């Protein structure tokens, strides 16, 4: 289609000339619903999010529910099987405070990853009127996604589950029921980090508990029967080993991608960068925002509870809803 001296190509996976920071927020949403107007923040970094995003995918919702169940199961075993029956006063208080704090941070990071718009490009904005409003230079090429009929920014990829093009899409993770992209990668990194920490902590507590109970009677070190305690601890250890292995590898992979300014999709497709790379600390600052500080580890940073409650009342059904 020729319009105003530029060409619009229905190509899904190539390098467009429209930058990822461009203003492409005009347009309509067909499958999803946005309430209150399209006030998305387009540049990377943990700026305050004004949207509540949720993907209504059956498999993803089940996997997210399983994640919460396993974390809460670990908290139950750690608190009620190992810590509360302990004779020392400082031991359960110290370990309980550390474990439960990390568990809350892990679940909060999971929620922020799941409910944050990963950087979706609005559907149906590839119209002649919108193309004219871009004021592109003669001969400049931009790309249109044929699946969601949207102008495709640089480094955006289409997700078949979210049914949207996602800026700087790294991958779609069913365990958080969302894509990991430009706007929620920070929370995904925190989620993997905190899950790895509580898994390692649970393994250490389990080993200490077994060692303690071997020296005394099992009835004296737990309020549960010996058989039930052993089964609960064995399942917890298996869960902790699997979670620790998976999340530690994923955490390292995410940090490597951020420090090299290369998403997993770009690495697998061996795409040559056409953008200016922000490596190492520049890449970390672009994802986490600002200079290094403890706020980088806070999943609640930038969350406005009162605005979230007000906006969540306006959500509607669809393939996903955004508020």
TrEMBL record:
Keywords: Acyltransferase, Membrane, Transferase, Transmembrane, Transmembrane helix. GO terms for cellular component: membrane. It catalyses: L-cysteinyl-[protein] + hexadecanoyl-CoA = S-hexadecanoyl-L-cysteinyl-[protein] + CoA. Residues 144-270 form the Palmitoyltransferase DHHC domain. It comes from the Eukaryota. Its main location: membrane. InterPro entries: Palmitoyltrfase_DHHC (IPR001594), PFA4/ZDH16/20/ERF2-like (IPR039859). It is an enzyme of class 2 (transferase). It is a multi-pass membrane protein. The chain crosses the membrane at residues 59-84, 90-108, 187-210, 230-251. The keyword Transport does not apply. It is found in: Membrane. One of its GO terms (molecular function) is protein-cysteine S-palmitoyltransferase activity. Its EC number is 2.3.1.225. The DHHC domain is required for palmitoyltransferase activity. Belongs to the DHHC palmitoyltransferase family. This is Palmitoyltransferase. It comes from Gadus morhua (Atlantic cod).
